[in-house]
Each structure stands twice: as structure tokens, then as C-alpha cells.
Amino acid sequence: MGDLRNNFWNWEFWSPDVNLHEMQDGHLDLLQEARTEAGVVFPVNSGWRTIPHHNAIYEELGITPAPPSAHPEGWASDIGTGTSYRTYHIVKACLKVGFPRIIVYNTFIHVDNHPERKRFPQPMFKRGRW
Ligand SMILES: [Zn+2]
């Protein structure tokens, strides 16, 4: 279990089916940097996921999981946004600290820094009901 640094709660990263997480220190360090940089509310809605929980999320949405996800390996977080002001500052901070993959959804931002995955050339924007 990774060190949660200055201002995260353990439960923010829990897979809710087991109430624990296996986040990578290299992800938590970068996320802490981004949170400090952003200076806005920065809630983590989802961090580590067991494979069954990860698959259940997609099953509920009726879509096939986009392989491969960095969540079950502890390299990804979904950050709640709520307002365009917060979205702007969170994306700006995540770019500044060097997150290589950023996907902006309607209500949250997915960031990950899995060391074996390709860098996105720029943040991706996706519309959806989640
Ligand atoms: Zn995500």
C-alpha cells in the first residue's frame, strides 16, 4: 500500500468490493504534486480496482472494458471535477507535473502514468454519461 503523502485519504483509492488499495508510489507522488499545484478541490473518485470491480463498472455501463486499464495495476486515478473552473485547473496541473495520459470526461478526469503505456500527445476529451 502506497504512502498517501500530505492530503489524500486511504479510502479515496479503495476498490469498494474489498476496501483496500494497491496504488503505486510513483502514481501517488505525481498525484500529490498535481494536487498541490492545482489549488482547487481535488477528490479522487476511483483509484485502485480489483479486476472483478473494474469489469463490473463496465458491465453496468453495458460496454466492453477498454483494454488495458491502469486502474487494476495502481497507476490511475479518476478525479472528480464538478465545474469547468476546477476541470481547467486540474488538467493544467496534471499537464504541468507531467502526467502522460489525461482523459477528460463530463464529470471526472482520468490520469495515469503507467510506465509501460504510451504517452498521449495531448489530453483527450470524451463525452459520456459518466
Ligand atoms: Zn480512470
Question: What is the element layout, followed by pairings?
Answer:
Blueprint lengths: L24 H14 L5 E3 L4 H11 L14 E5 L3 H14 L3 E4 L3 E5 L11 E2 L5
Parallel strand pairs: 3-5
Antiparallel strand pairs: 1-2, 2-4, 3-4
Helix pairs in contact: 1-3
Zinc ion (ZN) binds next to strand 2.
Feature tags:
Muramoyl-pentapeptide Carboxypeptidase, domain 2; alpha+beta; 30% helix; 130 residues; binds zinc ion; globular; five-stranded mixed β-sheet
Structural account:
The chain is built from three helices and five strands; from the N terminus they run H-E-H-E-H-E-E-E. By secondary structure, the protein is α+β, with helices and mostly antiparallel strands. The protein has a single domain, classed as Muramoyl-pentapeptide Carboxypeptidase, domain 2, CATH 3.30.1380.10. Strands 1-2-4-3-5 form a five-stranded mixed sheet, with helices on one face. Helix 1 packs across helix 3. The protein is globular. The protein starts with 24 loop residues before the first helix and ends in a 5-residue tail after the last strand. 33% of the residues are buried. The mean pLDDT is 89. It binds zinc ion. Zinc ion binds next to strand 2. The site of zinc ion (ZN) has 4 residues, from strand 2.
